[in-house]
Amino acid sequence: ERFAAYERAVACCTDPEQFDFRPLPGAGTVQVTIGSGSPAFEFHSGLSHFAAFRLPEGDGPFRVRVKSLFDGEPPGGSLFYPVVAMLDESFIVTRISGLENLRLEPSLARPGAGAGLALVAPFDPSVSRERYIVVFTPAVLLGAPPEDRSEGDMVTQPAIDWLRRNERRVLDPSPFGRLEILVAPAQPPSSG
Fold it and tell me: How far apart are CA 153 and CA 61, in angstroms?
């Protein structure tokens, strides 16, 4: 039923500037569910539901951890494989994570947290003009790859290689999922 709902999805917008960006706190955790009622967009990798956020304002460096929680246990569970696009104030993508950036985070890593796959993105407002993040999943995981390939496509050779290496060890991809987004100050350099 998830894939049937995904197949009925239509793009909400024609440009990221039209996204409804939720503010992220300067420090803390935000819980988000991406479901059939979430907006969808035609990314370079194809159509995907997504969540969009405005980064916190401030001068100091910080990091954002995006964790997608497992929906069920292997071998029968599924997962929204998150990819994060970072955008500047003109809504231009400045960088994008890949599937190879995902790391297993067991539920024991934090009290009360569930197991999932996570990635951490560092931000430093003093050297970067990034203002937004968008979390989505590559459409290639949900069906056939797009016909047109472009330079910004997530269906890169490293992503294809990663999928081939991990195909028997990963959970089935899902167009929907639960996310935990954690914002924390960057760790100060250690002395000595």
Answer: 28
Strand ranges in 44-111 using DSSP code E only, listed in sequence order: 46-49, 51-54, 62-69, 78-79, 83-88, 93-96, 103-105
Edge-first strand listing for the sheet containing 83-88: 22-23, 51-54, 130-136, 83-88, 93-96
DSSP summary character for residue 101: G
User: Token pair of 105, please?
Assistant: 């985070």
Phi, psi torsion values for 32, nearest 5 degrees: -140, 140
pLDDT band at 77 (very low <50, low <70, confident <90, very high): confident
**Separation CA 171–CA 186 (nearest Å):** 31
- The answer on pLDDT for 46 being more than 60 is yes
Chain centroid to CA 143: 18
* Per-residue pLDDT tens digits for 151-161: 555 555 555 66
Residue 147 is classified by DSSP as S
CA-based torsion, 110, 106, 122, 188: positive or negative: positive
Q: Could you tell me the pTM of the whole model? A: 0.83
User: Mean pLDDT score of the chain, rounded to an integer?
Assistant: 84
